[in-house]
Input
Amino acid sequence: MPSSERIDPTDARLLLALAAHPRATSVALAEASGLSRNTVHARLAALDRNGVVGSFERRIDAAALGCPLTAFVTTQVAQRRLDEVGRALAALPEVLQVLGLTGDTDLLVHVAAADAEDLYRVAGDILGIPGVERTSTALVMRQLVPYRLAPLLRRTAAR
Output
């Protein structure tokens, strides 16, 4: 679950510098954000400790891994089996992310596949998980806005 900690404008400036230069040293981040090295180190440690920042895993294009197709599989689940279904989905390498939703759909499953036949197999694997009652698959045709946080960070930094 994401952290409920709120970041202040100073943290936002630091995170913008980190987003722009993910491999930067504390000294370089201090220079880019206008903070002291000790402040950068202490604030990054606090952000990490409080769960504000997650994995620093770099985003890799799934197409480079032989999976150019992206799809979202909406999934209805027997409620008492939600945790079990989540664990089973996590075991599928093609599952990139799973989000719990409100409304008629319980889960939004982000998947990558090699081609249409592979996507059919992945969707079948999801439907075959005990506790999954129904699925619907939507193929991503193109990405219009990539995942990003920089606009929110800039707004927070400007406060």
